[in-house]
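Sequence in, structure out.
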Amino acid sequence: MKPLRIFRHIECEGPGYLAEVLSRHDIPWQLIAIDRQDPVPKTLDDCSGLVFMGGPMSVNDDHAWLRQELELIRMAREQELPVLGHCLGGQLISKALGGSVSANPVREIGWQPVRSSGSAAAADWLEGFADGVELFHWHGETFSIPEGAELLLENDWCQHQAFAIDNILALQCHVEMTAPMVSEWATLYGSELDDPSPAVQSATEINRNLAGRITAMQAVAEPLYRRWLRPLLDS
């Protein structure tokens, strides 16, 4: 099997729990570390799909690698390859497919409950999902839903938490998190937590009951990732 390409934009925002799922299913993957100035590949001939992780930058920033990643997503769509995006990665997918990325009404940081959109696509993608489960969030911008895509997840602070179209999955939330990643972000990005609000948790709250919250989130992430991997697992 050709490897998945996973694009990392900053060192602390790697594939996390996704890497564990890929390992369990014996799916190879290759890291493209934009933070180390790895070049963005120009073709998709030697990969089976694309994964885009998060980062503190904006999709609307003027970086050559952002434009190149957007073009790769469009190419993957034409070639019917699986594409997965987390936060910034989900925003990249939206923009590449004709959507837009703009400021969310509030910054959303920490553990917040989400619910299914109730769409037919949500029933297909969210195996065993229960409304109210807490997922992890860290964003100030949000994506629109491109034409032809269906909303999967939503919550009170951000209307668009996930959408899917064919074998493309875009997430605003961070289901890839592991416990060490959560603690590291709360330290590295701690300046963003100085003014807690209902939508922005303190570092103390973010780290409270961390093991239990991670376990509950991975129970959502596991079937979601498996559903996205279906074209590869069935091949």
